[in-house]
Amino acid sequence: MYGTVARYRLKPGMQDKLLAFEAEIRAAKIPGLIAEFTFRTDEDPTVCYEAIVFESREAYQALADSPEQDARYHKLLELLEAAPEWHDGEVINADFGK
User: Fold this and answer.
1) Which H, E and C letters describe 12-78, residue by residue?
2) Could you point out which of 5, 16, 95, 98 has its C-alpha 20 to 30 Å from the C-alpha of 34?
3) pTM for this structure?
4) What CATH number should be reported for the domain whose range is 2-90?
């Protein structure tokens, strides 16, 4: 598995739009996407961390290189104070608690 973790700050009042944006992504049924989690921090509710997991590095890269994802990324940027910090890497452990 492969994925990315992002840190970003929402513009004021954009949480509901972020959740609607994420629902659009789920509806797109992106090939290779396993899971996506968004965390809002207790310390500052405008700061979010997002973890996205794919079946493989190839599935992640195919999405990253697609024009559809570029359009989604620009839509996301409209909700944020600045571009996200991205940290890509191999998933070396996944425990779903089952």
Assistant:
1) CCCHHHHHHHHHHHHHCCCCCEEEEEEEECCCCCCEEEEEEEECCHHHHHHHHCCHHHHHHHHHHHC
2) 16
3) 0.87
4) 3.30.70.100
Q: How far apart, in Å, are the Cα atoms of 57 and each of 4, 12, 15? A: 10, 34, 29
What's the token pair of residue 13? 């009042």
Cα(81)–Cα(37) distance, integer angstroms: 20
* C-alpha R_g of the chain: 14
What whole-number distance in Å separates Cα of residue 63 and Cα of residue 57? 10
88, 60 contact by CB (below 8 A): yes
Q: Give the number of other CB atoms < 10 A from CB of residue 26.
A: 10
Asked if pLDDT for residue 65 goes beyond 80, the answer is yes
Which region among 34-43, 56-65, 88-97 has the lowest average model confidence (pLDDT)? 88-97
The token pair that represents 31 in the structure block: 């090939």
